[in-house]
Amino acid sequence: MTVASQVKQTISSLKGVQGTLRIYSNQTRDQETKTVFDEALNVTDDVIKDMEKRLQTLEFEEPQYKGN
Amino acid sequence: MQEWIDIVLRTLALFFTVLVSARLLGKRNIARITPFNFMSYIIISVIAALISVKIITNITLGFIALGIWVVLPIAFDYLALKSKFIHDIVNGKKTILIKHGKVMEESLLKLRLSGEELLRELRSKNAYNLADVEFALMEANGEINVLLKADKKPVTPHDLGNKVAPATEPQTVILDGNPLNGPLSSLGFNQGWLNSKLESMGVSIDNVFIGQVDSSGDLYLDLFDDSIMTPQPKVKEMIYANIEKCHADLMKFSLETQDEGAKAMYRKNVDKLKELKEKLEPYLLR
């Protein structure tokens, strides 16, 4: 597995975490818990953005592996 | 008038009078009432019984006595709410039995409570060892309550310095195979949500005896058919595990890459995820 596809895998599992966190943030009744989940969503968002930028660079460097 | 008709009429009238007065006297736990309340209850029932079987022949006088015994305790209850002095007279005062770990023998004497009885009551409060008790008192209704010494108290998350997620009371949303719309809407959900949850668990609603939703919105089910294993909500643990995995992945990338800029970026995000993990732990795992 190339680095690019490994990074892609990590991004998708982070996105999975984000989706589930969003569900919990919507269905919880406690305001404090909601805030914590919302903050967590922002953090994962930042991480995903950074990783996607890195992925673009990697795919630019190794175009032959793009899409794997 | 024939005598038995008289008795039937009296009994019917008293049946409903006593029913109403029991409602008026309140719903205090009968095992925990003060001696005075206990006596007034007995007097009311005895008067009612005496009128009913015609030992008190004059029904008007009987009802007057009954009325006073019902109204006065209620009146005193209201007065006791307003005045501490009357409250103490009606309900009595608490008595301190153990203070700073020492038994107050004079109080025991006043209450005519033997040491054996005191120990029995302490044991019923799970204080087998007198040395563990810091403070104990007898409430006005005769119940003994115990405060254990600070180092003998059960451990709470606060003592351990652990943060736990706040939890509110669960709501029952399915009972006997029927969805309950009131609790569902108070949670902000509807039947569509319930159906999709049940579908993802692979359970038909007819098979559910009790379904409860906890404060984070997870559904717990008890089925009629006990041979079916329902998947218990483990989604939160899964999120935590996934975050942990991403954290490890980023750490690996940061070690593998040759590019200094990328290394710094990975490092930064590793720290972010670590912080996130610590922050979410109480909410996802505890």
Description:
- The complex is a heterodimer of chains A (68) and B (286).
- The N and C termini of chain A lie close together (9 Å).
- Chain A is mostly helical.
- Chain A has one domain.
- Chain A is elongated, with a radius of gyration of 15 Å.
- Chain A has two helices and no strands.
- Helix content of chain B is 56%, strand content 13%.
- Chain B contains eleven helices and eight strands.
- In chain B, a hairpin with a 5-residue loop joins strand 3 (133-138) and strand 4.
- Chain B is flat, with a radius of gyration of 32 Å.
- The chains are: A mainly alpha (68), B alpha+beta (286).
- The interface between A and B is medium-sized, with 32 and 35 residues.
Offer a concise description of the structure.
The complex is a heterodimer of chains A (68) and B (286). Chain A has 2 helices and no strands. Chain A has 68 residues and is mainly α.
Overall tally of domains of chain B: 4
Give the neighbour order of strands across the main sheet of chain B: 2-1-3-4
Distance between the termini of chain A: 9 Å
β-strand percent of chain B reads 5-15%
Structural class of the helix and strand makeup of chain B? alpha+beta
Largest interface: A-B, 32 and 35 residues
Major sheet attributes of chain B: 4 strands, antiparallel
Determine the fraction of residues in helical runs of chain B and give it as a percent range.
55-70%
Helix content of chain A: over 70%
- Work out the radius of gyration of chain A: 15 Å
Q: What is the percentage of strand-forming residues of chain A?
A: under 5%
**Average pLDDT reading of chain B:** 87
